């Protein structure tokens, strides 16, 4: 396939970073995912937050901080804009007064991305947004999940029966048959819990949970070898909660937990996923109101670029770009 239209980011050596509208990676803003290989999008919803809200502002600030991202990956040499058609398609619609309506709006929006043949790379928003994204992408068959987080997000209910919060999306996704729990791995889990058996339900389903202590004991290479083995060769969704990162490096989140991954570890771990069949990804829980000088949003934008390079590399290998 010969792609004529591969949107390019604004060149910061020609046009200063502080000039023009803020879009993800300074790419053109498109009204539709049609014709794109990867669609960058925001999901400004934090109605599932149980305590400190603010992640609805995450996409806007990540766009702003992404102006600092240049076009070529320094370690891999990948320039995703030369390999794939990618653009910012704006934000998914949400309803700040209704969780249920927001879930449906988000699901429908991502169904449109899937129907267009594009892979979504989303910025949240709280972690509940992953549920409607999975409803859109995994409606036909369950997928695997590689999940970086301080929290398992497999609790059942909150506050007397609320089933839809940022602490429940992966329980709902497993119950709804969107995820194959035997192909789910959660990395970096830590912090105090509501009770000693909080993660038992997930374990009983077959979910692999690797606490931060496991990462420290085994090393990031061994953990990522395991992640690749657990997720397998089939379709997999990648979800990165920014609170997987230690709050000394990413303070702008609603549920910080000390003792987390470093930004360098996170980058190296993501790079190990090159070649995997990633059907969609998100970076969530960035809350600018708790941030320091845009630090957390910059971390989010950089991780987003790491994932974009993974998607571009995989797409190029599969499609043979430049061939008619």
Give a verbal description of the structure.
By secondary structure, this protein is of the alpha/beta class. Helices cover 32% and strands 16% of the residues. Strands 2-1-3-8-7-4-5-6 form an eight-stranded parallel β-sheet, sandwiched between helices. Strand 4, helix 5 (169-175) and strand 5 form a beta-alpha-beta unit. It is globular, with a radius of gyration of 18 Å.
**Oligomeric status of the shown chains?**
single chain
Main beta sheet: strand number and arrangement? 8 strands, parallel
The strand line-up of the biggest sheet is 2-1-3-8-7-4-5-6
Task: Please state the second-level CATH architecture.
Answer: 3-Layer(aba) Sandwich
Which key features would you list for this structure?
about 325 residues; Arginase, Chain A; 8-stranded parallel sheet; 10 helices; globular
Summed up:
With 324 residues, this protein is of the alpha/beta class.
Lay out the secondary structure.
Layout: E1 38-43, H1 58-65, H2 80-83, E2 86-91, H3 99-115, E3 119-124, H4 130-137, E4 143-148, H5 169-175, E5 179-189, H6 200-205, E6 208-211, H7 212-218, H8 220-231, E7 236-241, H9 263-271, E8 278-284, H10 295-319
């Amino acid at each position: 396939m010969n792609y004529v239209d591969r949107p390019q980011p604004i060149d910061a050596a020609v046009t200063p970073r502080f000039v023009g509208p803020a879009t993800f990676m300074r790419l053109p803003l498109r009204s539709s995912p049609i014709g794109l290989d990867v669609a960058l999008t925001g999901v400004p919803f934090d109605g599932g937050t149980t305590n400190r809200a603010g992640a609805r502002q995450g996409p806007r600030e990540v766009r702003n901080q992404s102006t600092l991202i240049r076009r070529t990956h320094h370690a891999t040499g990948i320039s995703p804009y030369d390999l794939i058609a990618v653009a910012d398609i704006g934000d998914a619609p949400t309803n700040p007064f209704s969780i249920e309506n927001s879930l449906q709006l988000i699901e429908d929006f991502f169904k449109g991305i899937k129907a267009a043949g594009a892979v979504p790379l989303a910025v949240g928003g709280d972690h509940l947004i992953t549920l409607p994204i999975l409803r859109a992408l995994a409606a036909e068959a369950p997928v695997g999940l590689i999940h970086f987080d301080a929290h398992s997000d497999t609790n059942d209910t909150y506050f007397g029966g609320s089933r839809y919060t940022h602490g429940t999306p992966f329980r709902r996704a497993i119950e709804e048959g969107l995820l194959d729990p035997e192909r789910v791995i959660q990395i970096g889990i830590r912090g105090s819990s509501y009770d000693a058996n909080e993660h038992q339900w997930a374990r009983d389903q077959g979910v692999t949970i690797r606490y931060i202590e496991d990462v420290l004991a085994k090393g990031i290479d061994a953990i990522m070898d395991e992640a690749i083995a657990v997720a397998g060769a089939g379709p997999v969704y990648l979800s990165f909660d920014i609170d997987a990162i230690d709050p000394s490096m990413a303070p702008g989140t609603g549920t910080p937990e000390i003792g987390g991954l470093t930004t360098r570890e996170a980058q190296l771990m993501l790079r190990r996923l090159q070649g995997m069949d990633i059907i969609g990804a998100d970076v969530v829980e960035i809350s600018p109101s708790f941030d320091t000088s845009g630090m957390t949003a910059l971390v989010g934008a950089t991780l987003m670029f790491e994932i974009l390079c993974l998607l571009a590399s995989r797409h190029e290998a599969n499609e043979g770009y430049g061939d008619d």
